[in-house]
Design a protein that fits this description.
The chain is α+β, with helices and mostly antiparallel strands and 66 residues long. Helix content is 33%, strand content 35%.
Length: 66
């Protein structure tokens, strides 16, 4: 499992945090450790999830990786 902190732009409130957590949690092989305004700490299995999939999940929540 690889640990990574994702810097996320556009988040302003707790609803944003919940949206990002929800989308990242949908990915197989991803464990969401913490989500705060502006960042998410995740652990993921690199054989199941790529950085591109993490980016797409953040975008699906309505935000972009910084």
């Amino acid at each position: 499992m690889k640990n990574e902190e994702l810097k996320i732009s556009g988040m302003t409130c707790n609803h944003c945090v919940m949206s990002v957590r929800k989308e990242l949690s949908k990915l197989p092989g991803v464990e969401v450790k913490d989500v705060r305004i502006g960042s998410a700490l995740v652990a993921y299995d690199e054989s199941k999830v790529s950085g591109d999939l993490l980016r797409k999940a953040v975008e699906e929540a309505g935000f972009t990786l910084a």
